[in-house]
Amino acid sequence: MTDEPDDHDHEFSAGQGLEEDYEEFTLDPPELNADPSAVDPVDTRVITDALDRRNIADDQVDVEQLLDVGLSYMGINRFEEATGTFERAAMYASEDSLDAQEAWVNKGVAHAELEEYDEAIGAYEEALRIDDDSEHAATAETNLAYALWEFGRHEEALEHAERAVEIDPRFAQAWYNRGFFLLERGLAEDAVTAFNNAIRLGHRNADVLEEKARALEETGEHDEAEEVAEEAEQLRQERERELVEEHGGGGPVTDRESGGAAGGARGTDPGRGGGRGSGLDGNAGGGLGGGLDDVLGGNAGDGVDGDSGDGSDGFDSERGGR
For residue 164, what pLDDT band results from cuts at 50, 70 and 90? Predict the structure, then answer.
């Protein structure tokens, strides 16, 4: 069946049409000023990044908020998303600013959590390029030491661990990392000193004590080593009981929550600089496994005894190791 023709012709409106200078529109995508030879074909973010710059002015982006979003991703173990968020924070931060440096350090921590140590090294090095003596520099140095160690560049790792405590001599976790590297190099006496400094500065947990016990064994202090090892085990058991209570008695406690196994380097928890966040210590979602700590920002407390005689006030003297 076909429609019968309408008895009346349809009357169209008689408009004025388009002006002569009307600019035609197109549905084609915008052309981006990007050099194809400089773009990795597997980098799916390049278009997004280019459009971000094209459509969003730098002064419209809250870099502080982006950093907090990245930390939130880290808190729920979504490290891939965290790396992207920190990268954008660095992109929108003022060039070579502390915010940019903070973003690069946290990006490195996120990569380390993914065991992407090459990318972590690059992020920490970029942070140090911005400023190698800022409030974030010691954190970047000790984190870089950790990533280098995991990447097999052990000699460089010790150099950066020592640089971290030179920048901030009251950085407890940096002393712990330095002690670990010294012990791995066979400098057990110097390692004991470093661990003592870390403990006096408030970084006292099972991992630190276990490493100190190992160093004491190497120096022949077997009785003291046994006492320290027993204390470490007691602290570990107490920590596990606390976690069981926090979980309400349900579900297993993971290595990450209990602080991880002893031995080996550890990355620090991400945090905000200037005392706004915590450094990484491997506890309650912080560490990558026993051994070294990675940290971001914040100064450690007082409490290291002794005079090194080399201008570093309040620390045990170092006996070589450089």
Answer: very high
Distance CA 311, CA 166 (A): 10
DSSP characters over 194-245 = HHHHHHHTT--SHHHHHHHHHHHHHTT-HHHHHHHHHHHHHHHHHHHHHHHH
Asked if the structure places residue 171 within a domain, the reply is yes
Give pLDDT, residue 278: 31
Residue 184 in domain: yes
Q: What is the pLDDT of residue 272?
A: 39
**What is the DSSP secondary structure assignment for residue 171, as one 8-state letter?**
-
The span from the CA of 312 to the CA of 79, in Å, is 37
Range of the domain at 86: 56-258
Give a yes or no: residue 301 inside a domain. no
CATH label of the domain that carries residue 95? 1.25.40.10
Strongest mean pLDDT among 14-28, 110-124, 230-244: 110-124
CA distance 74 to 54: 28
